[in-house]
Amino acid sequence: MKEKYESLLNLGIQKRHTNSLNKRIRLLNTFCVIWGIVVLIFVSLELIVSIVLEVINHKTITFAFIDIRFFFTHFFILISLILILFLNKNLHFKWGRFYFLSVFVIANSYASLIISPGHYVEYYFVLLSPIVSTLYTKKSSSYLALIIGFLIFLTPYYIYVVYPTEYVDRLIILESACIFLVVHLLVNYFKSNNLVYEKLLALERDKVLSDKFILEKQEAELRELSEFKSHFFVNLSHEIRTPLTLIQGYTNQLTFKESDKENKEKTTVIKEQCQQMQDIINSIMDLSKMESDQFELIRIPVDVNSFLEKYFTNFQSLFAKKNIDFTFNNNTLKTNILIDKNLFSKAISNLLSNALKFTSINGSVAINTTFNNDDGITINVIDSGIGIHKEERENVFKRFYQVKNDITKSQGSGIGLAFTKSIVNAHHFSIDVKSSIGKGSCFSISIPKNYVSSAIHQPKIEPQNTFSTNEQTKPTFINKKQNILVVDDHEQMRIYLKKVLKNYNVTEAEDGKDALSILQNNSFDLILTDYMMPVMDGETLVKELKKQQNKTPIIVLTARTDQQGKLSMLRLGIDGYLHKPFMEEELLINIKNGIALYKNVKDFDKETSPEELKNLNEYADKFNTKITTYINQNINSPLLSVDAIAEYMAVSRSTLNRKVKSILGQTVNQLIQEARLEKARNLRAENPLASKKQIAEAVGITNTTYLFDKLKERYGI
Ligand code: ADP
């Protein structure tokens, strides 16, 4: 009802009109509606009262009271009001307004002179000037209306004499003139006041709008800056990592005589500093990656006690050096938490490093865990160090923020806690600090219970390595020098790699295109390529080689650390992916394994009869079916993991990873993730009304936001 009334009042209002015009249109509609209601009430009352009086006086209803002029006039008014609304609706406001004023003047004149003379109906003309004031903007119109209204008011007194002449004295006329004037002035006073307020409001609104615009612009600029920063960090790291690799590599190659202690010590300092630089670059890169959502959280169930125990053991000697009493109070039964082990380790290491840094000699540091059925697990790192001021507590989690003190003057970069908080937030956990100056601090990471599960058996988590170094792939020793194609745009890097690969015949290519032309006439035992290169990058090179069915093993060497780049390369079926700076040993092992595996495949192809090859393919098919069926059957369980699959397939975790990698070209974790994303995508397509939470639960992912971020990234959903 209210809505209908509102839409009636808004007939003819348009966005393109000025505010003032829209207001006048609405006022005209309001006048019509109010007058219409008044007419209806008036006519109904007149009817009822007349009928009642007839019944009382004559005991019957004769309808003799009906004055046809009375009903005709009111009928005319009603029809006119409807017509005015219609005119307004069709954007003829000016005609509507003119029509309204005409009806007002005609109806009231007719009533005051013909239907009800002597009933003071002419006093209605006092409303003429206020009505004109509100419907017209010009002041002169309202003064004109005042004069016309007053003149018409006088008609029954002087022209069409209705009142006995003795009633019409100068006093009455003067009083009426005063009433007309006062009403006119009052309405105009409020109107001009209203206009002033409206102008002020408009100014305020403009200011708010311009502030909003400025804020939006600043926000866009900040976003752009932040994107630029992330990009800048990636490029900068690329630039720094390569020379850093060279420095580290050459420093490792330096050999000194036993007696040359001084140079030995200097080299140790260089190595330490390089490591520190590498850690800072890694932290900044990881942080910027996390903030731009380019990272992938790979959660696995990890036993919280053995996980922390490892860090307790690692840090023990460092704390002992400062004579700090370091304890681990484990108050939880064997319990699994769902974490990205690699990232979460960095958060714990940061907290322990800070505790070590900010606690003085002979102090104490403790790690403790508390388990609560309702809240989950809390991991606390408590120290008796210098403490943090109340005002600084929030700031310490900000990027590059350091509390000014003697320790931070010479150490640290202010990135550690920001990184830790990003890691914790990415897991959807929370981190908090309680501290007292001079007494110590307590950093607590709270893990909600939906990421905590009691472990029936403790999963044995081995380090995830794309390359297994176990016996089955042990390199075979080959006397003849093997050929490696090194593809890198950085000349110094090629020279360095040549030195590292001194036991191989190395051919150099400057970029992917150069490599392809060399490969046209030569074959190699392995290709070692950079990721980011001008002319043709590593990814395009690999795609081209795969298209040509080139079976040479490929190892990609890169400064890029984002998962996206890594995944897109691994999906192409490369044999290894190493980050710069890498350890020489690591590179050599990977090369040996890659070549050995390839040699095995070549030998195998040569030795195996077509019949056997067919059997092998059948085995691969069966393996594929078995593992994918198991994944699909258990896809709704958050505990579906590499360990669970390994147990089902009755193989060790590393064997499983190797088999899956060789048969399906992916790691087991990638396989699970892909299956989950695909199922989620299908569920969404089949059942568009299903809630996000339902879909996430159906694919065993507890973090809905994470799932939908991944879907967006993977399929653009
Ligand atoms: P950094 O340690 O490299 O300076 P962080 O981000 O790790 O950077 O820490 C930020 C600041 O928080 C530090 O500069 C230090 O002042 C304060 N802080 C962190 N941990 C502790 C602690 N355990 N005790 C006292 N102060 C701390």
TrEMBL record:
Q: Which residues carry this modification: 4-aspartylphosphate?
A: 530
Per the record, the coiled-coil ranges are none
Enzyme class label: transferase
Q: What is its EC number?
A: 2.7.13.3
Which residue range or ranges hold the Histidine kinase domain? Answer: 235-451
Transmembrane domains' residue ranges: 27-56, 68-87, 99-121, 141-160, 172-190
Sequence ranges assigned to domain Response regulatory in this UniProt record: 483-595
Entry's PANTHER family? HYBRID SIGNAL TRANSDUCTION HISTIDINE KINASE C, TWO-COMPONENT HISTIDINE KINASE
The protein's name in its UniProt record: histidine kinase
Q: Which species is this record about? A: Polaribacter sejongensis
Q: Which lineage is the organism of this entry classified under, starting from the top rank?
A: Bacteria, Pseudomonadati, Bacteroidota, Flavobacteriia, Flavobacteriales
